[in-house]
Design goal:
alpha/beta; 36% helix; nine-stranded mixed beta sheet; 11 strands; 10 helices; two-stranded antiparallel sheet; single chain
């Protein structure tokens, strides 16, 4: 493990061109849209989030069998549609036939990434690539972003180091990325030792929960360390207004929430935009 971490530190110090998140990146990020009130990762949910004051949208992508990125968190369609089976085993046409809205919105479908980018032009998008075992997912996602002219308004993340590493290599600094789980762990550990100066991060943002098990991740020390290296701290998934205030007081840069209307109210109280 020590060898792996040492190697990652060395790789980070050799990092090439890194695209930062554009200035004015939104604070209020709708997590899978406005997913408390609407079916997650659907056009209705994204539309409601923007209307409620979200400045940006967080979404997940997976590849269909015929190579199309669709907006879906789980590896299977079972939980969020009336179908069953793996996304990777279905064609785009098969996925599109599924009902993703439930009884309340029977005409809601699973959107493709292309549809979301076209439907919300100019809206910053935070894309989480979920496929860890399909190396082509990174290149296909990048191709869709380029076709839509959306690389400058997108932050691409993945929990998997291999995924973000391949995406960065393909993008060549054209699109901002977040830290993988492994990179977050290395940054956190070095920040505890006050050695974050050893890193030249290849990522623009640490996207973390407040706590990981019994470990408190989002601390004043982590926020200061990240900012000293030009890295944002984005926190997920926060739905309580009191906690939103506390995190903003701590200096975090963005809050991902299932309730963008609640965060919009908090930001209005603080005299800030979404």
């Amino acid at each position: 493990m020590l060898v792996a971490v040492t190697g990652l530190v060395v790789a980070a110090r050799r990092a090439g061109k890194v695209r930062p998140v554009p200035a004015g990146w939104p604070v209020n990020i709708g997590h899978r849209g406005a997913s408390v009130q609407y079916p997650e990762n659907t056009l209705a949910s994204f539309r409601a989030a923007v209307e409620a004051g979200a400045g940006g949208l967080e979404l997940d992508v997976r590849l269909t069998r015929d190579g199309h990125p669709v907006v879906m968190h789980d590896a299977t369609v079972d939980r969020t549609t009336d179908g069953f089976g793996a996304v990777s085993g279905m064609t785009l046409a098969q996925v599109r036939r599924l009902d993703a809205g439930g009884a309340g919105r029977p005409d809601e479908r699973v959107p493709s990434l292309r549809e979301v980018l076209a439907g919300f032009p100019g809206v910053p998008v935070n894309i989480d690539i979920k496929d860890a075992n399909q190396p082509g997912a990174e290149v296909v996602t990048l191709d869709v972003l380029r076709e839509a002219g959306a690389t400058a308004r997108t932050l691409v993340v993945s929990a998997h180091y291999g995924v973000v590493r391949r995406f960065r290599r393909a993008a060549g600094g054209e699109c901002a990325t977040g830290a993988s789980r492994l990179e977050i762990g290395v940054f956190y550990g070095l920040s505890l030792l006050r050695l974050e100066r050893l890193l030249r991060p290849a990522y623009a943002a640490l996207q973390v929960p407040v706590d990981y098990g019994s470990l408190r991740l989002v601390t004043p020390r982590l926020v200061r360390a990240a900012h000293s290296r030009g890295v944002r701290v984005d926190v997920w998934t926060i739905n309580d207004p009191v906690q939103m205030h506390d995190l903003l007081d701590l200096g975090v840069d963005a809050v991902m929430t299932d309730r963008p209307e609640a965060l919009a109210g908090v930001l209005e109280e603080r005299g800030r935009a979404g």
